[in-house]
Design goal:
alpha+beta; Ribosomal Protein S5, domain 2; Arc Repressor Mutant, subunit A; eight-stranded antiparallel sheet; six-stranded mixed sheet; nucleotidyltransferase; cytoplasm
């Protein structure tokens, strides 16, 4: 016997079945929003995982191609590793859920979301977000929920609650907001230069909808929710903290962490750790949790310094940005490069331009998005933080950071018609100490301009942090947080934008939500900071996009032909187009609407290819002049190829003004000749004359 619950959200019905499927999970909900169907489950291990000092939460968003009536591409014909969209969706679910589990909980928890059917009017990502929250709330897993999530789009200046996929893709705003019953706990946004005030309005419109959903979830939990199970706490014993403070007094810990050099601070902590290991050598239980205890001691010290004394570890003012520097063209021969440094955070970004045929193909659940022409990739090697470990390819963090910087710059990119290139930006992290994703945004913006990409406006990004006290009005907002302030603080609030508005937001917190004054102050601080970064740093390195792409970048000439002539350019089995490519060394892309892009690095060869295409696609008229090559000689004349796959005949009587007995007396195979078109003969062939070519 199962129970069904339903409510209206954004003009569409959300239906939840509980007890119908997956009964062995700790919590499971079978959800429909329109026809979009998702199974969300929450499961936990019976015992804590040994030897860890973190909460082992895993979130999965499984895209099944049958949900949109498709068979996966490729040879294997089954779903492979998670797509980028799956990874990003899982991260959006993880970020608001994680802070609501007990901090001393070490049992493995998995939140799985299986997409079974997709209705384009109801995005499956939203259903999975709500499903994870509800499944956890009704389970016996300890959880300080519920939380709810709402998405907001904007069409023609009007907000749309939980927009359809088409509205989401085409609108000026892509905002996801998660809330508890009192506060906002997560914000994720991409925006087309939305003013700060409008963004705040949208955030709290979503927050209001979330309150309705939370009331609905509370009703469900009251009826079918399980009693939360007990668990083994992994909290540090109070007596251990007291003993640590005797050995390392608070003043000594303050001195150890109060430095702007990350390496110096780490050496200080290593020395303290060695002393404590020696002191606790005979207490095995304490030694097992010593690392976590030192972390907590540092955290309390840093938070007290910031909150009570308004002192930051590196001595900066609360709204002060670290030392900035920027430069372009640091890497030779690439199409564009720039380096941006903020304190001990340093990003080198390299841009590559290519024909539109190099766009990334996407095999996903969204029928509207099959390819993207701008790709931003982010790499985070271990040396950037002074560690040593092998590279295993991009993880969820790298994918998330790359997507954030990509989202930040999309609104200012030129259209394909204005700039017919596929664009790839790669951010290499040379050094990391806080908010490399925002440094990536700044470096990428400069690198695009250096590559000659005519972006509409400059974009910069910055992150704000937070330390809170015991009451809602006891808090300190920090501009440009470094790693230590991120680790020990309560918030990482990243905002990117132009001088006119916001292009992206990503907010992560470790507490149970933010009040509206904190959200408003953080957004105001980030605007002030990004304008400072643009004026005082980025514009001094490069003020505007270069007028042309660089020497080593491919050049592209675009032209429009009659779509009916595409077959003439391609030729039978691609013979004609392949011959043009072989002769000139260019790359040619043709779209179904007749747009032709000729790409190459040699201007003369590109012009030749364009001329060939023009000849092939132009209806022949009398008196047109062509240059061609003799490809065949007959008794009655010679055949002249004037473009790949295009030929005409010069009758023997039209070769020379003097009478000739044999064609071979004047022409040989391979000769380059100039001819004038006489029209078409009775057989429909093009007739040429050499002797009637007008003199120059």
């Amino acid at each position: 016997m199962y129970k069904t619950y339903s409510m209206e959200i954004g003009g569409k019905t959300l239906t939840i079945d509980i007890g119908r499927v997956a009964a062995q999970a700790n919590g499971a909900v079978f959800m429909k929003y329109g026809d979009t169907t998702v199974l969300s489950t929450a499961t936990a291990s019976d015992k804590p995982r040994d030897g860890i000092d973190f909460f082992p939460l895993s979130v999965e968003f499984e895209e099944k191609m049958y949900s949109v009536g498709k068979i996966p591409g490729g040879f294997n014909k089954r779903e492979g590793k998670a797509s980028e969209n799956s990874v990003l969706t899982a991260r959006v679910i993880d970020r608001p859920m994680r802070p609501l589990f007990p901090k001393d909980y070490r049992n493995d928890v998995t939140l799985n979301n299986l997409v079974l059917a997709v209705d384009p009017e109801c995005r499956p990502e939203l259903v999975a977000m709500l499903g994870s929250s509800i499944a956890t709330c009704i389970s016996d897993i300890p959880f300080y929920g519920p939380c709810a999530m709402t998405q907001v789009g904007m069409i023609d200046g009007e907000f749309v609650i939980n927009p359809s996929q088409a509205q989401w893709d085409e609108g000026d705003l892509k905002l996801t907001v998660a809330s508890t019953s009192e506060k906002v706990i997560m914000i994720e946004a991409g925006a087309n230069e939305i003013p700060e005030a409008k963004m705040i309005e949208a955030i709290y419109k979503a927050h209001d909808v979330n309150q309705e959903i939370i009331a609905f979830i509370n009703q469900i939990v009251a009826e079918v929710g399980k009693e939360k199970h007990s668990y083994t706490s992994c909290a540090i014993p109070d007596e251990m903290f007291e003993k640590i403070k005797e050995i390392v007094p608070p003043a000594e810990m303050e001195e150890a962490v109060f430095t702007d050099e990350k390496q110096v601070r780490e050496e200080n902590i290593k020395e303290i750790t060695a002393r404590l290991e020696e002191a606790f050598a005979e207490n095995e239980q304490w030694l097992e949790v010593l690392g976590e205890a030192i972390y907590q001691y540092q955290k309390k010290t840093v938070r007290k310094m910031i909150l009570k004394d308004h002192k930051r570890p590196d001595g900066r003012a609360l709204d002060q940005i670290r030392k900035l520097s920027a430069e372009v063209d640091i890497v030779p021969r690439v199409h564009g490069s720039a380096m941006f440094t903020r304190g001990q955070t340093q990003i080198c970004d390299i841009v590559t331009l290519a024909p539109l045929s190099e766009k990334q193909r996407i095999d996903g659940l969204d029928e509207n998005v099959t390819a993207k022409r701008y790709m931003h990739h982010y790499n985070f090697p271990s040396y950037s933080v002074g560690e040593t470990k092998p590279s295993r390819g991009p993880g969820r963090r790298e994918i998330g950071h790359g997507a954030l910087a990509e989202r930040a710059l999309l609104p200012v990119l030129p259209s394909e018609e204005e700039f017919p290139y596929a664009i790839r930006a790669v951010s290499e992290t040379f050094e990391s100490n806080g908010s490399t994703s925002m440094a990536s945004t700044c470096a990428s913006c400069m690198s695009l301009m250096a590559a000659g990409v005519p972006i509409k406006k400059m974009v910069a990004g910055i992150s704000c942090g937070l330390v809170t006290g015991d009451t809602d009005d006891d808090y300190v907002v920090l501009t440009d947080i470094q790693g230590l302030e991120d680790f020990f603080g309560d918030m990482d609030f990243k905002v990117t934008g132009t001088t006119d508005g916001i292009t992206a937001i990503q907010m992560d917190i470790k507490i149970h939500g933010l009040t509206r004054p904190i959200v408003e102050e953080a957004i105001a601080r980030t605007r002030q900071a990004r304008l400072f970064i643009m004026d005082e740093c980025m514009k001094k390195a490069i003020a505007e996009p270069r007028k042309e792409v660089g020497e080593y970048a491919p050049k592209i000439i675009s032209m429009q032909i009659d779509p009916q002539k595409i077959g003439d350019v391609v030729g039978q089995r691609g013979k004609t187009i392949n011959e043009i490519i072989e002769r000139t060394g260019v790359k040619i892309d043709i779209t179904d609407d007749g747009n032709v892009s000729v790409c190459g690095t040699d201007k003369d060869m590109m012009d030749q290819a364009v001329e060939m295409i023009k000849i092939i696609t132009t209806d022949f008229e009398k008196d047109q002049i062509f240059k061609g090559k003799v490809i065949s000689i007959k008794e009655f004349g010679a055949f002249i190829e004037f473009a790949p796959g295009k030929e005409g005949m010069v009758h023997i009587s039209k070769i020379s003004k003097e009478r000739i007995n044999h064609v071979e007396d004047v022409l040989t195979l391979g000769d380059e000749v100039t001819v004038v078109c006489l029209g078409k003969d009775k057989m429909g062939r093009i007739s040429f004359s050499m002797k009637d070519v007008p003199k120059a």
